[in-house]
Amino acid sequence: MSLDKETVRKIAYLARIRVPEDALAGLVAELNHIIGWVEQLGEVATEGVEPMASVVEITLPARADEVSDGGIAEQVLKNAPEPVVAPGTDGGYFAVPKVVE
Amino acid sequence: MSYVVKGERGDWEAVVGLEVHAQIISKAKLFSGAATQFGAAPNTQVSLVDAAMPGMLPVLNGHCVAQAVRTGLGLKAKINKRSVFERKNYFYPDLPPGYQISQYAQPIVGEGEVLLDMPDGSTRAVGIERLHMEQDAGKSLHDQDPNRTFIDLNRAGVALMEIVSKPDIRSPEEAGLYLRKLRSILRYLGTCDGNMEEGSMRADVNVSVRPKGSNELRTRAEVKNVNSVRFVMQAIEAEAARQVAVYDAGGEVKQETRLYDSEKGETRPMRIKEFAHDYRYFPDPDLLPLTLTDEFIRGIAAALPELPDDKKQRFVADYGLSPYDAQVLAAERETADYFERVAQGGAGGKKGRRDAKQAANWVTGALFAHLNETGKTISDSPVAADALGALIDLVADGTISGRIAKDVFAEMAATGRPPKAIVAEKGLMQISDAGAIEAAVDQVIAANPKQVADVRAGKAKTIGWLVGQVMKATGGKANPQMVNELLKRKLGG
User: Would you give the end-to-end CA distance of chain A in angstroms?
Assistant: First the structure.
């Protein structure tokens, strides 16, 4: 498998990474190297082997249905560039450029 | 009553499938310990996991898993003992991690079915394709500021079930019946409150059309995020008509996402193309596959309540109700419990204690009418089930007439007083004293010689009019059967 320039441009867009046009060719080469490297795994015979989800034999842990978190609006909003206070409450909003549908 | 869209060159039918997002009833979120309660101050029910702070890891809420399995069993669906959480990647301001944890290739619940109760009393099955668990996103408020969108993450991470139907629905009416039935099942199970106003149940509607009689599946459009049963029905009507017009004009329907504008009664394409479906699902490396034991599933199955379909059948079999009445009474658990209490004096009561048909008539007739008028639910009905039962007893043992019972009910609804007290205080007891009735009958005979002559001449119908006169003279209190018999005897009818 190898990637072309168009695919790399699309991947960059989907990841919201701005890539200047003149940097694309270099990225194509680099990504193709990585893919080629990973593809070596294809040489291992895996027929009939269940994909492994974890190297340790454990099942997915679960929590009880109890409220044990939250009430930290101030901390949650601490890094927001322009938080907006919700009047009369201890809460507030993130504010972002208008996205309207 | 099949649904047809008239085209220029023939009839078309609609092919509809629904994806319902149902919020799971739980105290805490699917992967964090933050609360889920509706209406809290913005961003006060957000943990650092929900805010996607670096290094925070999701831990699955076990109760939400049980709720999803319970729902699957209620939909008579296959439970998958192994399911996988995946990441659905897209960027939007109300989704801080840049991906939604969802299930894709391996959902927790597979195929099942929902039975629609058709207006003619028959049923029709709509297939369930799958049910999977996923996280809700936060809420974007676009109308608070001219230039900015405000984001509240309280809803971010709340557990949802996405319930996907097969494209088995053929009309707006069936879509409405499907949603109501699904909501009824979810409420019985206690897994979702079904409240569409608060957004705890929302639907995406997939619509395509095809020439009537054809079996092909044409390109569908998806109408996103419709938030009431009525709007779902309207959206299907509008979208099916639009697609037929497109084909009539020689065009092709595009596979796209649209929105329903309830004010204009039309659908329009979503403007933001960034949603172009390229979600790059892959298994979430933070979460192991979810495995369920048979014992866990059996435990939930054993604790399932009686569901609306079973209850409906039991009401028909045990109480002799019509399928229609049985379905109306079984649609909500509270209504069904109320009816049974009226019919047999509660769970510990005796079957056949009261005339079940009468009980059903009172509940679906006078009681529903009153609740509708006053905007109340059956849980805060001013007339308790036992009081309504007592009223039915008063009619059954001849204390009051059926006509008077209606007045007594109105008084009970207005004042909340027991029927016996109202009847005693207002002197509404039925007159079953032969002497008193005879006196009234004699008076009516004397006062209406023409009608009496008619009856004697063989116009049997007029006797009903005379009965009415006696009832009127006694303020509706005379025992109508006795009046009838007495008149017939005296007039030789």
Answer: 38
Chain B nearest-CA residue for A57:
B288
For residue B213, the SS3 value is coil
Euclidean distance between CA atoms B60 and B290, whole angstroms: 9
Q: Is A14's Cβ below 8 Å from some Cβ in B?
A: yes
B116, B118, B124, B127: CA torsion to nearest 10? -30
pLDDT of residue A101 exceeding 70, the answer is no
Out of A69, A91, A101, closest to residue B43 by CB = A91
Closest Cα in chain A, distance from residue B44 (Å): 5
Domain A5-41: give its CATH code.
1.10.20
Measured between CA atoms, the residue of chain B closest to residue A68 is B33
Domain ranges of chain B: 5-301, 308-426, 434-491
Q: What are phi and psi of A71, to 5 degrees?
A: 70, 25
- Does residue B93 sit at the A interface (CB-CB below 8 Å)? yes
C-alpha triplet B380, B382, B383: angle, nearest 5°: 115
Instruction: Give me the sign of the Cα torsion angle B467, B473, B479, B483.
Output: negative
Task: Tell me the pTM.
Answer: 0.86
Chain B residues inside the 8 Å CB shell of A63: 28, 33, 59-62
- Closest by CA to B319, choosing from B291, B341, B292, is B341
Architecture of domain B434-491 in CATH?
A: Orthogonal Bundle (1.10)
| Measured distance CA(B97)–CA(A23) in Å, rounded | 27
Q: Which residues pair with B487 in a beta bridge?
A: none
Mutate to test the interface with B, among A6, A10, A13, A65 (most CBs of B within 10 A): A65
> How far apart (Å, rounded) are the C-alpha atoms in residues B246 and B5?
13
Q: How many CB atoms lie within 10 A of CB B63?
A: 20
- Label residue B335 by pLDDT band (50, 70, 90): very high
User: B52 touching A, CB under 8 A?
Assistant: no
CA distance B357 to B319: 7
Q: What are phi and psi of B94, to 5 degrees?
A: -90, 15
Q: Find which of B26, B43, B45 to mutate to test the A interface (most A CBs within 10 Å of its CB).
A: B43
Which is higher by pLDDT, B137 or B481?
Answer: B137
Residue B272 has what pLDDT?
A: 59
CA distance A22 to chain B (A): 24
Contact A70 B46 (CB under 8 A): yes
Alpha helices in A1-101 (DSSP H): 5-14, 24-39, 73-76
Q: Which of A60, A67, A91 sits opposite B41 (nearest CB)?
A: A91
Token pair listed for B250: 């020689």
Bridge-based pairing state of the strands A62-63 and B60-61 = parallel
Predicted ipTM? 0.91
| Residue B151 to residue A69, Cβ atoms within 8 A | no
DSSP-derived letter for residue B49 is T
CB B440 within 8 A of CB B473: yes
In eight-state DSSP terms, residue B58 is -
Question: From the CB of residue B444, how many other CB atoms can be counted at a distance below 10 Å?
Answer: 22
- Kind plus residue range of the DSSP H or E element containing B135: strand B123-135
| Amino acid occupying residue B91 | F
pLDDT of residue B388: 95
- pLDDT score for B430: 76
